[in-house]
Write a structure and sequence with these properties.
Keywords: Signal, TPR repeat. The chain is mostly helical. It folds into three domains: about 70-155, no CATH class; about 155-215; about 220-290, Tetratricopeptide repeat domain (Serine Threonine Protein Phosphatase 5, Tetratricopeptide repeat, Alpha Horseshoe). Helices cover about 75% and strands about 0% of the residues. It has 14 helices and no strands. Helix 10 (about 205-215) runs antiparallel to helix 11 (about 220-235), helix 10 (about 205-215) packs parallel to helix 12 and helix 13 (about 260-270) runs antiparallel to helix 14. It starts with a helix and ends with a helix.
């Protein structure tokens, strides 16, 4: 009888050890799976961002090529215009309009109206410098250099924030003003300075949220998602977390990940049901079919 009890106790101990090992293995597998999912998600976002940047770079390169071609065509047109007046063969064929010339030159009326006159022909042939002296206008009208100058002047985004804001509120207001002026890089630098200097300030959640908005405004949706997630992680009960959840869902939708978009929009509606962001989130869910 004692031997039977001893055997039963041994079997029970082995069963308990087996259950504990199974639970531990299950927890390890779950943690490993969660890490792999997070890693895949970040890799997906990085790939999407690289594709977007490559598309932007290709578009910019194509614009520069088009501008250069337009510049060269204008210069060639100017050179051809000057050569037409000097050519004796072409000047003896009649009026310029008969040959389809396009020019901004303004020579004497006799040279154009009565091109068959011997004095006008000999005048054009004898004075070779005269046509070029009257053609400084085509190069000056070339639009390409002006376009390049405007584009260069349009992006003097200073990476320096306002130097002398007074206190936390002044620094925060400076970053917000830069954001409203579409100086997104400078605004982000200012908000980073605020978060480094005043990490526990009441406006820290707001500053971090607007930092995410600078990325979203620049269509850098991968960085926007990571920054908005930092808002919800550091300030889960703050009202800005509701707006951050909305923007996370919208950012995932922008990169084509509707599943994650629906997931975070549902989290917004459940955690902050009475917020203004939740109202917009419900509309997005209807649109996405979630």
């Amino acid at each position: 009888m004692k031997t039977l009890k001893l055997v039963l106790l041994v079997l029970l101990g082995l069963l308990l050890v087996s259950c504990a090992t199974t639970k531990k293995d299950a927890a390890t597998v779950s943690a490993s799976t969660e890490w792999r999912i997070k890693s895949l998600e970040e890799s997906f976002l990085n790939i999407r961002e690289q594709q977007r940047r490559m598309a932007d770079e290709n578009a910019l390169a194509q614009d520069k090529i088009d501008q250069r071609l337009a510049s060269l065509e204008t210069e060639i047109a100017g050179l051809r215009t000057g050569g037409v007046v000097e050519s004796p063969a072409e000047s003896t064929q009649g009026s310029p309009s008969d040959n389809g010339w396009v020019t901004d030159l303004k020579p004497e009326d006799d040279g154009w109206v009565d091109g068959q006159k011997a004095p006008a022909i000999s005048k054009a042939q004898s004075n070779e410098d005269k046509p070029w002296a009257e053609v400084p206008q085509p190069p000056a009208v070339i639009p390409a250099p002006e376009v390049i100058q405007r584009s260069a002047a349009k992006t003097p985004v200073t990476s320096k924030p306002v130097k002398s804001p007074s206190g936390a509120k002044g620094l925060y207001d400076a970053g917000l003003s830069q954001y409203n002026a579409e100086q997104f890089d400078a605004s982000r630098v200012t908000f980073d300075q605020f978060l480094k200097k005043y990490p526990n300030n009441d406006l820290a959640a707001n500053a971090l949220y607007w930092k995410g908005e600078t990325y979203y405004s620049q269509k850098d949706y991968a960085q926007a998602i990571l920054t908005f997630k930092e808002v919800t992680g550091r300030f889960p009960k703050h009202h800005k977390s509701a707006s951050a959840l909305l923007k996370i869902g919208m950012s995932y939708d922008k990169v084509g990940d509707s599943d994650n978009s629906i997931f975070y929009l549902r989290a917004l509606v459940e955690d902050f049901p009475k917020s203004a962001a939740a109202t917009l989130g419900r509309k997005e869910l209807v649109r996405l079919g979630g």
